[in-house]
Amino acid sequence: MTDLLLPVEKVLTSYSLVTAFAVVGVTMWISYTLSEHVTKGRIHGSAIAILIGLILAYIGGIFTGGKQGIADVPMLSGMGLMGGAMLRDLAIVATAFGVRMTELREGGLMGVLSLFTGIFVSFAAGGIVAYAFGYRDAVSITTIGGGAATYIVGPVTGAGLGASSEVVALSVAAGLVKAILVMTLTPFLAKSIGLDNPRAAMIFGGLMGTNSGVMAGLAATDPKLVPYGAMTATFYTGLGCLLGPSVVFFIVKLIIPA
Prior knowledge:
Strand content: under 5%
Structural class: mainly alpha
Low-confidence stretches: none
Largest sheet: none
């Protein structure tokens, strides 16, 4: 049996990036099936997929003793490229090009204010937590604060400021926790916060920012609201990537001099 599987393993290892896309596709299919039939749509498939990914990364790290999680498994090494900085930055640019400033202006002043409020509040909350856990340098505080904004803003900020890999990993973890919380709690809180119209969805996307969390949460609440929340959430990510390594970092430097 093992001899029969060797050619298959060789092909999967040789085309590891293709294998990675296939594994992610199967994971998404399983996640959305569980969402539909087990949770009845209460927990979005994206949230379940992220949880499965984190579990697989943990298991991969334990069994290989490596530092890249599931990417340390030879046939799944393509996960390292698929989830790396190159495709991440491509996704950011591609998403940003899909949004027009005229659409943002249609959201009015409240949509713009929600963007800046959401970004600065998230950076401040993450920075305070980082300081409370012993981080005293502006680079680490700003990077972890960026992670509290989104798990994309954190790494981009950290890369721009030269943060250590450990701090960047913490920023990603903070962003993932936020995304999962937004995904899972939005359907339960939507009614109480008046999240039932396009304008509210745009403000919500600007305040929360995490693109995957906002879209998944709104999809589980009312699919018609997804484009409106996604629009401001996308701007949030781009704006956070611009402000994090520049304006926010200089503000943190003034408050906490090195």
